[in-house]
Design a protein that fits this description.
The complex is a heterodimer of chains A (153) and B (124). Helices cover 43% and strands 18% of the residues of chain A. By secondary structure, chain A is an alpha/beta fold. Chain A has a single domain (11-150), classed as HUPs (Rossmann fold), CATH 3.40.50.620. Chain A has a five-stranded parallel sheet, sandwiched between helices. The termini of chain A are far apart. By secondary structure, chain B is α/β, with parallel strands linked by helices. Chain B is globular and about 30 Å long. Chain B has helices spanning 14-26, 37-46, 63-73, 87-96, 109-119, and strands at 6-10, 30-34, 51-55, 79-83, 101-104. In chain B, α2 runs parallel beside α3. Classes of the chains: A alpha/beta (153), B alpha/beta (124). The interface between A and B is medium-sized, with 28 and 29 residues.
Chain lengths: 153, 124
């Protein structure tokens, strides 16, 4: 039988959705990255409104408002990361991207050569849950790299 | 974090309701969306709603009619009206009819969030 060689992951990606468990997730992923000496990226996605709607009826301010959403997400990402680890996760490792979580996670995995994904399966409530829920389960079905799903805290 | 607050956003512009939902969810609000007054009332039968943000000009049932129906059935639910038409007149009418707050379009999302935050402020 051929033996599989397991090596320590050199790059970790943690996907957070700003639910309560995001703080725990960042802390866990950071500690893990220190433990195995890996580079850590934290990712959040914002809904691509035009794609989500399936068609686009231009609203006078939508582009501007989307810019506000992205900035708010960046601020929130900074707040979460800095409250856990200070400035240890710099801006180039705090990623906010537009699109569906699953698609963006896979894009970042390829772009950053990620070797381990860390996430939780907490499901957010509200209209956006339709876009965000079950991303852990969805990723698992066609996983491209090893992943770790943390229990919700 | 506003983890226990459910906000219902009512507007016939899907892209606008999604942007508002996305923004408020960053700050911990749970946002549900409806495309007009009838749709909104159906939501309120099913979900506990802590505040309603509604456009005034919508098909089927406008924001003023929706507000009157909500105030009759759910008198403690705060309502924030938004509009881009005849702002000063709409604002006057909104408060006369019982709106808790009014936001004129175009608005910054932060401005809307601040108004919602203030509705839930214990100092209010």
């Amino acid at each position: 039988m051929k033996k599989t060689k397991v090596e320590k992951p050199k790059t970790i990606l943690s996907y957070i959705d700003f639910t309560k468990s995001s703080y725990y997730l960042v802390e866990y992923a950071y500690q893990l990255s220190r433990l195995i000496d890996a580079e850590l990226f934290i990712l959040h996605t914002v809904t691509d409104i035009k794609r989500a709607a399936g068609f686009y009826v231009p609203h006078i301010n939508t582009d501007k408002l989307e810019g506000e959403v992205i900035q708010a997400a960046k601020d929130k990402m900074y707040e979460i990361c800095s409250s856990i680890v200070g400035d240890k996760i710099d801006s180039s490792h705090r990623l906010v991207k537009r699109g569906s979580p699953l698609e963006v996670i896979n894009e970042v995995i390829e772009e950053k050569k990620i070797e381990l994904l860390v996430l939780t399966h907490e499901i957010s409530r509200g209209t956006l849950s339709g876009f965000r829920s079950d991303y852990a389960e969805k990723f698992m079905k066609n996983a491209t790299i090893p992943f770790l799903v943390l229990p919700v805290k | 974090m506003n983890n226990n607050k459910n906000i219902l956003v009512v507007d016939d512009s899907d892209d606008l309701t999604h942007v508002i939902a996305e923004f408020l969810s960053i700050y911990g609000y749970h946002v549900f969306t409806a495309s007009d007054g009838c749709d909104a009332l159906e939501w309120m039968e099913k979900k506990a709603v802590d505040a309603v943000v509604s456009d005034i000009h919508m098909p089927r049932m406008d924001g003023f009619t929706l507000m009157t129906k909500i105030k009759n059935k759910y008198p403690d639910t705060p309502i924030i009206l938004i509009t881009g038409f005849s702002v000063s007149e709409a604002k006057k009418m909104a408060f006369e009819k019982g709106a808790d707050a009014f936001v004129a379009k175009p608005f910054h999302l932060k401005e809307l969030k601040n108004v919602i935050d203030s509705i839930f402020s214990p100092l209010r």
